[in-house]
Amino acid sequence: MNPSCHPPCHWDAPLEFEPWLRPQVWGGRQLAELLGKPLPTDGNYGESWELCPLAPHVSALLGNPSPGRSLTEIWNDLRADLPFPVSEQPFPWLIKWLDCRDLLSVQVHPDAEQSQRWLGEICPKSETWVIVAAEPTAIIYAGLKSGVTKTDIERRLGHPTLVDLLHQYHPQPGDCLYLPAGTVHAVGGGVVIAEVQQPSDATFRLFDWNRVDSQGKARDLHWLEAVDCLRLPQPPVLPVSAQPWSVAPDGIGGEELLSVPEFQLDRLTIHRPAQIDHQTVSVWMVLHGTGELTWAVGQKAITPGMTLLFPPRLRAVTWTPATTGPLTLLRVTLPALNAR
């Protein structure tokens, strides 16, 4: 049977999807070595798209009961179980792991109006990074130094000193940065990131470190679009201050990292077997540790790098960490529905 012809299902188990592994000039091998991703060649890979509703790379379900069914089809089933109307809304996130061995381009993403103007479609891109691992040489450029103006930026287009206008710092594992549309940013030097973003691949490059490929060709830059999309004035971007949960289930350390209209991120540290009463749609990324996840009719071994979609019908689940240490999880929800 063609997957598109499947009747609706009542999803009541954690769902895992086939990742799309993307070679990148700035990537490395940490997606395999740290996160267990099966890289198909011995080249450098920068991205693992875990949950993607964008054509032509819509995520496909792994394993039973319906291997190959698309995220879009499943989301159409899940919306009927949500306690608020989302009949016209696509799946709300694009979820990735990033291996930034080298520096990404200095780039800017558009908001809804800017993407319509420059790309002919509404595809805003705000995103959040949670740092999983960082070498001492790692660096993040995010936001601008105090007093930098549009004229300052335009005068340095095409010159390496453009990056001197950007705020920079050395990230630490656990840092969380919110990069709303219009924020200039770059990252690299040995950083592994869990990324949660709006479902968009709209990126405008300001500078690409004068890199060329094996044919001597540089990647395209988008000065006009990128400068237009910059939010100004733009302060330095610093890691967010996590807010500890006032109440948490026994065995769990919980903290809210971020709550914005597009997504809410919470980090959970599971020290011993802990039950969570799940009530809505959510995504769980395994940042660190191993263990087991159990629910009413099944169980699953848990390893770093896994990304799981929890349907609304999945109720009580129990996370059990291995004896070697705690599990650290990133939970993604829609803010209005987050129930702890």
Describe the 3D structure.
- With 340 residues, the chain is mainly β.
- It has two domains: 3-229, Sandwich (Jelly Rolls), CATH 2.60.120.10; 243-337, Jelly Rolls (Sandwich).
- Helices cover 10% and strands 35% of the residues.
- The chain has five helices and 21 strands.
- The strands form five sheets. The chain has a six-stranded antiparallel β-sheet, with no helix packed on it.
- The longest helix has 8 residues, at 71-78.
- It is globular, with a radius of gyration of 20 Å.
- Mean pLDDT is 92; it is low at 1-5.
The Rg value, from CA coordinates, equals 20 Å
Q: Return the CATH topology of the largest domain.
A: Jelly Rolls
Main sheet: strand order: 1-2-3-10-5-8
Helical content stands at: under 10%
What shape does the CA trace take?
globular
Short description:
This protein is mainly beta and 340 residues long. It has five helices and 21 strands.
List keywords for this structure.
six-stranded antiparallel β-sheet, Jelly Rolls, mainly beta, 21 strands, 340 residues, 2 domains, globular
